Amino acid sequence: MLREPLLIESVVALAVMTVVSVALGWLMAGRVLEPLRTMTARARRISADNLRERLAVPGPDDELKARADTIDDVLTRLEGAFEAQQRFVANASHELRTPLTLQQTIVDVALADPDASVDTLRAALLRSRAAGEEQERLIDALLTLVRSQRGLERREFVDLTAIVRERLPTGGPRVEARLDPAPVFGDPQLIERLVVNLTDNAVRHNLPAAAGEERWVRVWTGLDPAGRAGLRIENSGPVISPEQAPGLFQPFRRLGPERVRKRDGVGLGLSIVAAVVAAHGGRVLARTRPQGGLTVDVSLPGHPVAGGGGRRTG
User: Fold this and answer.
1) What is the per-residue pLDDT across 173-230, written as a single tens digit (0 to 9) for each?
2) Do 304 and 229 touch, CB atoms closer than 8 A?
3) Ramachandran region of residue 228, left (φ > 0), alpha (ψ -120 to 50) or beta?
4) What span, in angstroms and rounded, lies between the C-alpha atoms of 301 and 227?
5) Cβ distance 184 to 157 under 8 Å?
6) What is the model's pTM?
7) Rounded to the nearest 10 degrees, how much is the dihedral formed by the CA atoms of 235, 239, 244, 245?
8) I need a labelling partner for 216 at 20 to 30 A (CA). Which of 110, 167, 266, 297 fits?
9) From CA 75, how far away is CA 96, in angstroms rounded?
10) Strand runs (DSSP E) across the chain, as ranges?
11) Beta bridge partners of 72
């Protein structure tokens, strides 16, 4: 007789426990999944035009918040990359528009003169050709920069010292060179472009020839204490603020109104150097000299990089 009431009580208790368990499970699942719903909703709102928004998940430092913080870090890097790309495109458009505008103006002025002589037309053509050559140099520099940022397609042992010896500047400032062996494992064409850009930069941004002061360029190659190939180029020149040194590696960065007015170079020399060094897994550092001028130190791998992915040729 006692079995039936006990059975009924057990069934009722089981039913109550089931309802309570489902309710508690639903409540706990809601609390756990609510941050995921919030993250999903915010992630859907984020696009290329709205990279400033972050997931910003509150709460304790658990695995869910750690993943949300990781996503926020990725979004921060993406935002920086997009902004850098937009600045680069805007600067490149401006730099390309300047010689094009100049070229068009030269042609319009020549066409507007009905009494233009042969010498006048010839001078206009020469100026137009010079503007076209400036565009060609800029486009070539842009292509080299893009190629460097894309990474290396080939790697081989390169004699950095031989490249530097062939590219030492002549007919300008006094050159002091100490060239010790410095083998590099990388792309020979990009390394040659790196050397050319650094040597040209050291000559172009030196002291004026008419200033009467001693003009010089010092070049060193060798191995650093870690066994990596090193290249150091130092030059005399105008005084540069130490705060400006890191910005020299940014595309189209020129110092002072005089360099902007003279359009001394295309403004991509050191940015190409930085891209080539980064593609090789190296380091580059620019330091200003208190007396004037700049010192640029480059360190490149002198042996195969593990997992480099490039093919070795030669």
Assistant:
1) 999 999 999 999 988 988 998 999 999 999 988 988 776 788 999 999 999 888 899 9
2) no
3) beta
4) 8
5) yes
6) 0.63
7) 20
8) 266
9) 31
10) 154-159, 174-179, 183-186, 216-223, 229-235, 283-288, 294-300, 311-312
11) none
